[in-house]
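Field log, afternoon session.

UNIT: design team B
ACTIVITY: writing a sequence onto a fixed backbone
BACKBONE:
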């Protein structure tokens, strides 16, 4: 009796899919770049922050997307990708945004919480438990976030001339803000001020998860787990966009008011000289 069993074709397909996941995402980026160069730019969609600009703008169809954005007066350290100016970013500025976003407060806090949750449910069991297991999970989460930011904030936006920043809607209801936050996962702003399909946010997590299969535990590198992590990344991005909508208001409420300086005490009047 022959004990030899043929290697399952499903495992062969999984290995091939994982091996070429990263290359496929970069190939799609190149194809989209060629298409973007052939298609005319969409009409500009410049943000308006003053009442006079809003009054002079023509009436808009409420069924269409909201075209008025709120620009922050100063840059956020928790969400560095919140837009503070309507002008486009250069490639070097997109690289700086990638670096600051990778070590921002939201990145560190999100990785810390995600690592704790993963350890609680024993996800990535190859990392073990205890302090060492938590440190490995935290490091892997930070690495995946940094890789996603490299592709989604710097490389792909530079190739396709897309703006990686998030422009806050600001003046909508919760339902409108939630719809807008979800929509911005798939539609992004271009450097010329128009709208385009958000290849940056769609391809970047896929490339990041493909690279993550080189350092995640061996038991978490299957094709199904890679796609599952990719879907989670898209959902986290949508939830993060909704938080970005309300972060300026939340940050103002969390900021402690400064205590007023004590009033200066006037010196006692000088005694009159004796005659």
């Amino acid at each position: 009796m022959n004990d030899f069993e043929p290697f399952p074709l499903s495992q062969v397909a999984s290995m091939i899919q994982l091996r070429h996941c990263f290359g496929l995402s970069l190939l799609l980026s190149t194809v989209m770049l060629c298409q973007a160069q052939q298609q005319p730019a969409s009409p500009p969609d410049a943000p308006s922050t003053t009442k006079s600009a809003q009054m002079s703008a023509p009436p808009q169809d409420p069924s269409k997307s909201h075209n008025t954005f709120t620009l922050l007066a100063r840059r956020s350290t928790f969400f560095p990708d919140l837009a503070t100016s309507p002008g486009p970013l250069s490639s070097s500025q997109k690289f700086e945004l990638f670096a600051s976003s990778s070590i921002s407060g939201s990145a560190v806090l999100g990785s810390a919480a995600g690592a704790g949750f993963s350890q609680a449910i024993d996800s990535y069991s190859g990392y073990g438990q205890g302090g060492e297991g938590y440190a490995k999970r935290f490091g892997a989460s930070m690495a995946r976030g940094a890789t996603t930011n490299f592709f989604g904030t710097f490389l792909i936006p530079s190739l396709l001339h897309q703006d990686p920043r998030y422009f806050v809607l600001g003046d909508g209801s919760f339902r409108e803000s939630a719809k807008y936050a979800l929509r911005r996962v798939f539609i992004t702003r271009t450097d010329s001020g128009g709208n385009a399909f958000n290849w940056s946010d769609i391809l970047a997590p896929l490339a990041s998860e493909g690279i993550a299969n080189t350092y995640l535990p061996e038991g978490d590198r299957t094709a199904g787990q890679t796609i599952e992590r990719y879907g989670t990344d898209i959902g986290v991005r949508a939830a993060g966009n909704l938080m970005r909508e309300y972060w300026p208001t939340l940050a103002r409420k969390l900021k402690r008011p400064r205590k007023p300086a004590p009033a200066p005490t006037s010196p006692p009047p000088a005694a009159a000289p004796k005659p």
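LOG NOTE: The beta strands are 162-163, 187-190, 195-197.
NEXT ACTIVITY: expression trials, pending approval
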